[in-house]
């Protein structure tokens, strides 16, 4: 799968929201740094976090085991199934929030906002 990614901190800086229809189009026009916006390929056996690291990106993590939410991302477009065993409450999973250390996209293309640990609903879960 090919993942297009955007740093959640960019949303905060620009006053954008996860729900914005044209979020990734706005990002493409905003002349962002390559660490904040770009794309990479995810090998089928890798988690999203591993794929980001293989491509040279330092995305947040701590436990690497689905227990802390430091690695949370929001799936804006695409399919990224969530394993059953993790710390995220169902209301966040329903909003498309996933843990990048234990999940990966399965659709050919996905749009992912990383650094979701700065989202208030996620940061209150941080361990
Ligand atoms: Fe802790 Fe992913 S790094 S849940």
Draw up the topology in text.
Layout: E1 2-7, H1 8-14, H2 23-28, E2 37-41, H3 48-54, E3 72-77, H4 90-94, E4 97-99, E5 109-114, H5 120-123
Parallel strand pairs: 1-5
Antiparallel strand pairs: 1-2, 3-4, 3-5
The structure holds FE2/S2 (inorganic) cluster.
Report on the structure:
Helices cover 23% and strands 20% of the residues. A 5-stranded mixed β-sheet has the order 2-1-5-3-4. It is globular, with a radius of gyration of 13 Å. The longest helix has 7 residues, at 8-14. It has a single domain, classed as Ubiquitin-like (UB roll) (Roll). It is of the alpha+beta class. The model has no long low-confidence stretch (mean pLDDT 95). The chain binds FE2/S2 (inorganic) cluster (FES).
Task: List its traits.
127 residues; binds FE2/S2 (inorganic) cluster; single chain; alpha+beta
In short:
This protein has helices at residues 8-14, 23-28, 48-54, 90-94, 120-123; strands spanning 2-7, 37-41, 72-77, 97-99, 109-114. With 127 residues, the chain is of the alpha+beta class.
CATH architecture group name: Roll
Instruction: Sketch the topology as an H/E string, one letter per element.
Output: EHHEHEHEEH
The CATH class, by name, is: Alpha Beta
Percent of residues in helices: 10-25%
